[in-house]
Amino acid sequence: MSDDSRPSPAGTRTAAVIPAAGRGVRLGPGAPKALRALGGTPMLIHAVRAMAASRAVSLVVVVAPPDGTPEVKSLLDAHALPERTDFLVVPGGDSRQESVKLGLDALPPDYDIVLVHDAARPLVPVDTVDAVIEAVREGAPAVVPALPLADTVKEVEPAAAPGEPEPVVATPERSRLRAVQTPQGFERATLVRAHETVTDSVTDDAGMIEQLGLQVVAVPGHEEAFKVTRPLDLVLAEAVLARRRLNDGF
Ligand SMILES: Nc1ccn([C@@H]2O[C@H](COP(=O)(O)OP(=O)(O)OP(=O)(O)O)[C@@H](O)[C@H]2O)c(=O)n1
Ligand SMILES: C[C@](O)(CO)[C@H](O)COP(=O)(O)O
């Protein structure tokens, strides 16, 4: 927890919903991704600690694999977590979008800011979490942490079969593009409305807010907030963790 991580001002309460119900198909065979070990500790526990590290976050709702709720509850009981934070576990759904909705449905009434954070981004620093919360407190209905891209991006006509060449149709101007991370932060009422009204499938929650015609703003993300998606990401995550442990002297 950073020293400048601030508690909630009177009248605002922040909860974090952590969708953790994915299988992790792209990571390869094994347990559901969120339950796989990183530095000897389940990835989900890292993600939970990353949210609870913010003094502003007083509730974390974990959306567990549908058949894994008891296991996730036991994991939370077995690992040291801040006492000032409350925890809830609910079963997830078939898609990330559905899992987030199930997490939102479980929120008690007295939270007005909601973070949505992928269990698959276990190493996000607390300063990034706090920057997102701060931007919501300052009045943005939806906030995403984002980074500029290192690669040039092409829009293509997707191949009919894997491995076939794909015609390039456009090259968006890279300086205007951002890679978007989590936690994404929202006014609770706006996010709930988005999940109740937007029926298109989206790849992030902020995309639903855009569909409502509301302004989403980006704040600086962090390179350590990357998503563990493929096997090489796990190698990078282990290296980041090892570097942190070296710097912390244990
Ligand atoms: N039905 C789902 C699918 C995904 N997620 C969560 O959404 C986050 C981002 O999804 P992703 O990284 O794509 O995870 P998976 O869906 O597990 O990965 P894959 O697509 O490789 O199976 C993860 O924390 C994942 O657990 C979820 O809660 N419920
Ligand atoms: C929400 C997200 O992490 C923002 O980059 C991303 O869209 C999740 O995508 P996934 O395919 O469900 O991992």
TrEMBL record:
Q: Which reaction does it catalyse?
A: 2-C-methyl-D-erythritol 4-phosphate + CTP + H(+) = 4-CDP-2-C-methyl-D-erythritol + diphosphate
Enzyme Commission number: 2.7.7.60
Domain of life of the organism in this record? Answer: Bacteria
Where is the site Positions MEP for the nucleophilic attack? 174, 227
Swiss-Prot/TrEMBL site (Transition state stabilizer) positions: 26, 33
Name the CDD domains for this protein: CDP-ME_synthetase (cd02516)
| InterPro entries with a match to the protein in the record | IspD, IspD/TarI, IspD/TarI_cytidylyltransf_bact, ISPD_synthase_CS, Nucleotide-diphossugar_trans
> Which pathway does the record list?
Isoprenoid biosynthesis; isopentenyl diphosphate biosynthesis via DXP pathway; isopentenyl diphosphate from 1-deoxy-D-xylulose 5-phosphate: step 2/6
Q: Any keyword Transferase?
A: yes
Provide the alphabetized UniProt keywords: Isoprene biosynthesis, Nucleotidyltransferase, Transferase
| Class of the enzyme per the UniProt entry, highest EC level | transferase
Q: What GO molecular function annotations does the UniProt record carry, in alphabetical order?
A: nucleotidyltransferase activity
Family the UniProt entry places it in: Belongs to the IspD/TarI cytidylyltransferase family. IspD subfamily.
The protein's job, in short, is: Catalyzes the formation of 4-diphosphocytidyl-2-C-methyl-D-erythritol from CTP and 2-C-methyl-D-erythritol 4-phosphate (MEP).
**Database matches in HAMAP family:** IspD
Instruction: Please state what the protein is called.
Output: 2-C-methyl-D-erythritol 4-phosphate cytidylyltransferase
Q: Which organism is it from?
A: Streptomyces longisporus
Annotated gene = ispD
